[in-house]
Write a structure and sequence with these properties.
By secondary structure, the chain is an alpha/beta fold. It is built from twelve helices and twelve strands. Strand 4, helix 4 and strand 5 form a beta-alpha-beta unit. Glyoxylic acid binds next to loops.
């Protein structure tokens, strides 16, 4: 019988091409938007699917896994993050879960650096200033930014993406690299002369730019809270391209308003797609709609990886990105 794949949303065509090329049937949700829980459950019940391809906007919790037909053998998420999937529950049902690591590392790192530079050089504010018709000529004190060359980058989480960000800013901007991670990253230390700290506090207190690269886990929820923001330099910039709930958004708003830190750039939000309204009233905030991996090349590679994981697993081999 033809193996059947269900995708909760259209992703780059490469995935479907590869899956159809392998002889599978592919059903893509016809809704142009995120399926509600009920819609997703209903869709999953339509056919004896062998594989499900969710996005990070689909909550695949225990209840959703229970709603999957018994035929499902793999959940191949079109994302590197996997906090939206209850992996132990999937495992209990004998379902393998995969993600899309590595292919997006460079792109997310570039995007992170873009956000840091945007914040430091105030280019988003400058853009708004002109569009609002306020530009009447060069002014000595207009929108003064801050340099990042030779300053200190503090990584909160030094895995693949954090390390790539460090590499760009160390080599291109001479930044000193300090990092918190549960593990020492010897490669990062060798490449960027990075210094490891075993507490967040030590990293936050000395950094001019703090960039967050931890996965969302119970232990990292609200990792950046009122107390930790208070430890940061008044001149510090905070950048988050990981997951929104790692930052307590209300505490961040208060810190930005009070001048506890200088600015923040956010690609992700605590209650995505909702954003704490006050954030949007602050000029020292740069916001992006969760775009960090969004290049044509990378999104296509992610689609390829989704298809590869499904094909390998359904062919009885090991899916290259199977999560423990
Ligand atoms: C994006 O946030 C991803 O997890 O791929």
């Amino acid at each position: 019988m033809t193996k059947q794949i269900f995708m909760t949303r259209r992703i780059p065509a490469r995935a479907e091409e590869m899956l159809r090329g392998a002889g599978y049937g592919v059903t893509v949700s016809s809704k142009d938007g995120v399926l509600t829980r009920d819609e997703l459950k209903k869709a999953l019940a339509q056919a004896p699917y062998d594989a499900v391809v969710p996005l990070l906007t689909d909550t695949i919790d225990a209840d959703m896994i229970a709603a999957m037909p018994p035929s499902v053998k793999i959940i191949a998420s079109y994302s590197v993050g996997f906090n939206h999937i209850d992996i132990p529950k999937a495992k209990e049902r004998g379902i393998v879960v995969t993600n899309t690591p590595e292919v997006l590392t460079a792109t997310v790192a570039e995007h992170t650096v873009a956000l840091i530079l945007t914040l430091a050089s105030r280019t988003a504010e400058g853009d708004r200033f002109i569009r609002e018709g306020k530009f009447v000529g060069w002014e000595p004190m207009l929108l003064l930014g801050t340099d990042i060359k030779n300053k200190t980058l503090g990584l909160v989480g030094a895995g693949r993406i954090g390390s790539e960000v460090a590499g760009i800013l160390y080599n291109g901007f001479g930044m000193k690299i300090v990092y918190y991670d549960t593990k020492k990253n010897e490669a990062l230390e060798a490449l960027c002369d990075a210094k490891h700290y075993t507490t967040y506090e030590e990293v936050l207190a000395q950094s001019d730019v703090v960039s967050i690269h931890v996965p969302l886990l119970p232990a990292t929820h609200h990792l950046i809270n009122k107390e930790r923001l208070a430890l940061m330099k008044k001149s510090a910039l905070l950048v988050n391209t990981s997951r929104g709930p790692v930052v307590d958004e209300l505490a961040l708003v208060s810190a930005l308003k009070a001048g506890t830190i200088r600015g923040a750039a956010l690609d992700v939000f605590e209650f995505e797609p909702n954003i704490t309204p006050e954030l949007l009233t602050l000029q020292n905030v740069v916001v992006n709609p969760h775009l960090a991996s969004a290049t044509e090349e990378t999104r296509t590679k992610m689609a390829e990886l989704v298809a590869t994981n499904i094909i390998e697993h359904l062919s009885g081999r090991t899916a290259p990105n199977a999560l423990a």
